[in-house]
Amino acid sequence: VIPTSRVLSSQDDMPELPEVETVVRGLRKTLPGRRILDVWLGKTDFIDEPEELPRQLTGARIESIHRHGKFLVLALTAQSPDGKPSTPPGAEAPDDGSDAGTPSSRYLLVHLGMTGQLTSRKPEEIVKPHTHVVIRLDDGMELRYTDARRFGRIQLITGPLESSPLAQLGAEPLETTRAEFCARIRPRRTQIKALLLDQQVLRGMGNIYTDESLWRARIHPARRGSTLSNPELRKLHAAMQSVLREAIGLRGSSISDYVDSLGTRGKYQQRHRAYGREGKPCSRCGQHIRRIIVAGRSSFFCPRCQRAPRAKASAKTRKSNTKSSARGSVSKARLASGGRAKSPAIRRR
DNA sequence: CTCGATCCCTGGACGC
DNA sequence: TGCGTCCAGGGATCGA
Q1: What's the Cα-to-Cα distance from A164 to each of A113, A156, A157, A161, rounded to whole Å?
Q2: Tens of pLDDT along A196-206?
Q3: Active site positions of A, annotated
Q4: What is the pLDDT of residues A53-96, one digit of tens each?
Q5: A113 touches strand C (CB under 7 A)
Q6: What phi and psi values does residue A144 have, to the nearest 5 degrees?
Q7: What is the pTM (predicted TM-score) of this model?
Q8: Could you give the CA distance from residue A301 to residue A221 in angstroms, rounded to a whole number?
Q9: Distance CA A297 to C1' B4 in A
Q10: A191 touches strand C (CB under 7 A)
Q11: What stretch of H or E contains A292?
Q12: Torsion angle of alpha carbons A51, A56, A62, A66, nearest 10°?
């Protein structure tokens, strides 16, 4: 019985790491080497300096495309209309104070937000509603950005990526080692759900894969990072990576809007074990999946497989004899771990 | 440092 | 059938 809660429209889509990776892999087949003929803009309130886009992009060549967390990164080379590089070494902006030796590097960052799509289409294909950017390429194709809610972002970066917003992001989930993962989680008292979603901790995790990873590792979303045991952290690290790999293998989760670079839907949504499954039986134990709000996000979990953390000691709980035993076990744990408390050396974020 | 609230924006679900 | 209301959610931002 799911009275008030509307069955979460499992119709919401959010491009997370696997979806962005799928789009990137698709675009990588055709984009590198293409020259940009021109740029058409619709609504631009989600673009940083929209007027710069046509100016900087027209005539540029797309060198490569890759993913950084949930961002798509297109590396560009500026070119003059005749096809020759417009910025020969040393010939650029000498009076800006900008250092020589820094080749003019330009990147187009695209974040798909909730409903963004970046697709490669033939000009004769219907332009979907809410298409706000069309980039015409020299192979006759069009790179189109479509985003109904405009929660996405498009930003042009001139200069090294090291000084771009990308540099603020945390570890790449699929590349981070177990040790690094643990080092980022263990010192934090925040709820694990929030930590996994925090792009400064890990770049690329969103609501779906966070819930799926926690389900797989049997960890309740409201647990605090610092309370996770080593085995739990190890399991979570492995669970996160396997969930992401499997999702990439199935080309991501398509719930409604998400499509890859060719407009094809993914299949991972059929594998979801927790996300969007409120009231349905846990595929491990049969208990009904529940939905609660953690870190301001709806969070799906199995109340039997993923045990809730003990509530904070309150006047009530103190009355029972839990206090002394809890204290005792804490100090025992300290001893067992070699008395290692939070060392300031490891702390600094 | 950590937390919660707020805003952005639209389509789809829901209630009447 | 139609219309109004609610709400999701990533990320930035602000105040507590």
Answers
A1: 18, 10, 7, 5
A2: 999 999 999 99
A3: 15-16, 70, 297
A4: 999 999 999 999 999 999 999 999 976 555 455 444 444 443 33
A5: yes
A6: -115, 135
A7: 0.80
A8: 8
A9: 12
A10: no
A11: strand A290-294
A12: -60
Nearest one of A252, A53, A40, A259 to A153, comparing CA atoms: A53
Q: Whole-number Å distance, CA A149 to C1' C6?
A: 17
Q: Concatenate the DSSP letters of all residues of A136-198 into one string.
A: EETTS-EEEEEESS---EEEEEES-GGGSGGGG--B-TTT--HHHHHHHHTT--SBHHHHHH-
How far is Cα A192 from Cα A297, in angstroms, rounded to an integer?
A: 12
Q: Residue A251 and residue A267: Cα distance in Å, rounded?
A: 6
Name the residue with tokens 């996000």. Answer: A297
A70 touches strand C (CB under 7 A): yes
Kindly state the tokens that stand for A88. 């020969």
Residues A152 and A113: beta-carbon distance below 8 Å: yes
Q: Tens digit of pLDDT per residue, chain A (349 long)?
A: 222 232 333 333 578 999 999 999 999 999 999 999 999 999 998 998 899 999 999 999 999 999 999 999 999 997 655 545 544 444 444 333 333 334 558 999 999 998 899 999 999 999 988 999 999 999 999 999 999 888 899 999 988 888 788 988 999 999 999 999 999 999 998 999 999 999 999 999 999 999 999 999 999 999 999 999 999 999 999 999 999 999 999 877 655 455 566 666 566 777 788 888 888 899 999 999 999 989 888 899 999 999 988 765 444 334 333 333 333 333 333 323 333 333 333 333 3
Judge contact between A75 and A62, C-beta under 8 A: yes
Residues near chain B strand, CB within 7 A: A 4, 6-7, 9, 11, 45, 129-130, 148-151, 187-191, 194, 256, 295-296, 348-349
